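Good day; I would like, with your permission, to put a structural problem before you. I would ask you to consider whether the tokens describe a fold that such a sequence might reasonably adopt. The full record is reproduced below for your convenience:
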Amino acid sequence: MAVVILIISAQFPDLPPLLEIERNQSLSLLNTHFSISTMVPLLPSQVEVGAMHCRPAKPLPEDMESWIAGAGTEGVIYFSLGTVVRGETMPPEYRQAFLEAFRRLPQRVLWKYEGELEGASDNVMISSWLPQQDILAHNNVKVFISHGGLLSLQESIFHATPLLVLPVFGDQPRNAMYVESSGLGHMMEWEELTADRIIDALTDIITNSRYKETVSAMSASLRDQLTTPQERAVFWTEYVIRHRGAPQLRFPATQLSWVEFLLLDVVGLLLLALLMLLLLLRRLLGAVFGSVFRGYMKKKRE
């Protein structure tokens, strides 16, 4: 978080301090949705617009459509590590594991890979760019091998395609664990990558119907909304504009110090009261025991 603050401050030196901006905000658009993430209580000013970028599929180019449909009942595996992680930077031993695995699989493979790739089998199509959402929406695409980025995860759920996730950095390990625990597919660590393990994971996802059923049910829940995420984002943004910043949406707790927010002043007062009570009780017990002891000693002398 500190690094992010430094980067933002360096790029926008005239901005007020981020803490002041945070306290002055009236609306937060959250890239989440309760159907595809952990449910949490939200304020009226926190609006979920998760999967806002997802859209219905468009027709694929004729050659790609023909190639995917031509895979027959075995189907197609789609492989992409997103836009940040380039395929050509993949260590050779991992690249070789994928090439061997794909060679032994009956499915066709669409692989988003930048640069030249030697040794690819005839069932593999290589391209530096692919229309991801249109591919994921195709009925003959059986599984998506992904790095586990949030947007790719949302697209895969939206279009009901099971996943094999190989996380690289950032939020991707957490997203991969969510895929595994939710029954949307499997996750694998790069260090444990072998051709046999790739084949086993992909075969299980493709042949076991529970993964497709799980992601289809989650997709249906994600799509079943009264308004679209885009409509909600537009409405609440314009609401803030119409109401001149909408101060009625601002949570009063944002104006509290961290001491007040955590009730440390109240806790301190209670602890002080308890300490005074203990001291008073100690003095009282001391006086009682002293009186009893003096009376006992007096009787003993007599």
In short: Residues 258 and 264 are 8 Å apart (CA to CA). Residues 264-301 form the longest helix (38 residues).
